[in-house]
Amino acid sequence: MTKEQFAEKAGFDLNLIERNLQLTPEQRIEEHQSALDLVWQLEEARLTLNEKS
Question: What is each CA distance from 14 to 2, 41, 47, 52, in whole angstroms?
Fold first, then answer.
């Protein structure tokens, strides 16, 4: 079994890893920040809903 096959069997998305490796560090930081911003927006929405109920 190759390392790639082992990684895929373990559940790693090698396409996603390859895509991220093609990005510059700055682009990866921007994508990470966007994901964090979304998490914070969802958390704020959850808290708002909890306050209303």
Answer: 13, 29, 35, 42
